[in-house]
Design goal:
Blueprint (H helix, E strand, L loop, with lengths): L1 E5 L2 E2 L4 H15 L3 E6 L1 E2 L8 E4 L7 H18 L4 E5 L7 E3 L5 H9 L5 H7 L3 H13 L7 E4 L2 H11 L6 E3 L17 H8 L7 E6 L3 H4 L1 H13 L4 E6 L5 H10 L6 E5 L4 H7 L2 E4 L8 H8 L4 E4 L14 E4 L5 H8 L5 H15 L4 H16 L5
Parallel strand pairs: 1-3, 1-6, 2-4, 3-5, 6-7, 7-8, 8-9, 10-11, 10-13, 11-12, 13-14, 14-15
Helix pairs in contact: 2-5, 7-11, 9-13, 12-14
């Protein structure tokens, strides 16, 4: 099979980037002829993978976005592939994976989060966002795809409602997790090491938060919820893993809330399992996440997870057993109330076992096996 994976950036790190990197390596190892159509490559996942760079205009993000979509489309018109698998803002594909969900929904819920309503509306009118929305509309227009893949039912339902995509043209393939890399045994090694280094005592409950873009991921209401619980005499601390260019503002907020010494800003980490294994509870009050992988990674480490209904990964949680669900824009008071029952050690230990059991339903290998079945389905059907 000669397959083209189409994404603007090929790199070993990042959400979609890491997925494409892993997929390309797996397909090459299986003997497939793999071409990655990109504008920029930061290495190659396997010597057998062919990197097909296309030129883009160096005149700002909007020009690069449109130029890449057009240049990639031209290459795909010139050359014959058995299967074209699109990611990101692309125009031509047999199969398209919505790793980031619908861009229109992202704009509505999260892009201008924390800003006045009029500024949220204005954000949709910038040239860059108008171009992105135009490409998205074309991507999901009849005749521009054969099958679509989403990583949650939440995104599938949104896609069907927003763009009128027939439900039978969508396959839900949950993002898998590396069950060996993220494992409860790490809590007795890496986890205890992290807690010792930060002076977290065994009787203290350590909350874990992993995410880039603190406003969208809901860090502010989580900090305020921590202050509410501490005011009630609870002994809690918080690990913040990820990055945000406005991190200094969140540090100041934590200080104003009286959380000095209770919040550890760790920055981005290539080894999030260290911090997840150190956590007693994982909390992600995100405004919009098609499927936040950290949720499933935490559960695989035996850490009960609490997240909003706006996170596709919430579909992996059994509320009251392996974690809990928060409303779409959860208030600090709601977060505090939902966490209260799990602050009991016995309840946490029972939920820990349930969290690992829930995560074991989503092994990473199973995800790629299902994807190969989707490939086979497409290859067995002639292109219209």
């Amino acid at each position: 099979m000669k397959v083209a994976l189409v994404h603007k950036r090929l790199a070993p790190v990042g959400g979609t980037e890491g997925y494409v990197w892993d997929l390309a390596a797996r397909l090459a190892a299986a003997g497939e002829e793999v071409h990655v159509v990109c504008a920029r490559a930061e290495g190659v996942p396997d010597a057998r993978v062919r990197v097909r760079r296309v030129g883009v205009l160096p005149f700002g993000p909007t020009a690069r976005l449109v130029a890449y979509a057009i240049a990639a489309d031209r290459l795909l018109r010139r050359e014959r592939f058995d299967l074209v698998h699109g990611f990101g803002k692309t125009l031509r594909h047999d199969l398209y994976r919505l790793g980031g969900g619908c861009h229109a929904t992202y704009l509505e819920r999260a892009h201008a989060a924390g800003k006045p309503r009029w500024l949220r509306a204005l954000a949709r009118l910038t040239p860059h966002q108008r171009a992105a929305l135009a490409i998205e509309r074309r991507t999901f227009a009849p005749g521009h795809y054969r099958l679509l893949v989403t990583n949650s039912r939440m995104v599938r339902d949104d896609l069907v409602a927003r763009y009128g995509v027939p439900a039978d043209r969508v396959r839900v393939l949950y993002s898998g997790v590396d069950l060996d890399r993220f494992h409860p045994r790490l809590r007795r090694t890496l986890g205890e090491e992290v807690r010792r280094e930060r002076g977290v005592r065994p009787e203290e409950v350590l909350l874990g938060f992993v995410g880039t873009g603190y406003v969208r991921k809901g860090l502010e209401p989580l900090l305020r919820a921590l202050a509410v619980l501490q005011a009630r005499g609870m002994r809690l601390r918080l690990l913040v893993v990820g990055r945000d260019r406005r991190e200094a503002a969140f540090r100041r907020l934590a200080s104003r809330l009286g959380l000095d010494g209770s919040v550890f800003f760790e920055g981005a980490s290539p080894a999030p399992e260290r911090f997840l294994a150190a956590s007693d509870l994982f909390v992600l009050p995100t405004l919009y996440d098609p499927f936040a992988n950290a949720t499933l990674e935490a559960m695989a480490c035996g850490v009960p997870a609490f997240t909003t209904e706006s996170n596709g990964a919430a579909e992996a949680i059994e509320p009251g057993k392996s974690g809990g669900l928060l409303s779409r824009e959860a208030s600090p008071e709601e977060i505090a109330e939902r966490l209260l029952p799990s602050l009991d050690r016995g309840a946490r230990e029972r939920a820990s076992v349930a969290a690992r059991a829930s995560a074991e339903r989503f092994p990473r290998e199973a995800h790629f096996r299902e994807l190969r079945r989707v490939y086979a389905e497409l290859l067995a059907t002639p292109r219209p």
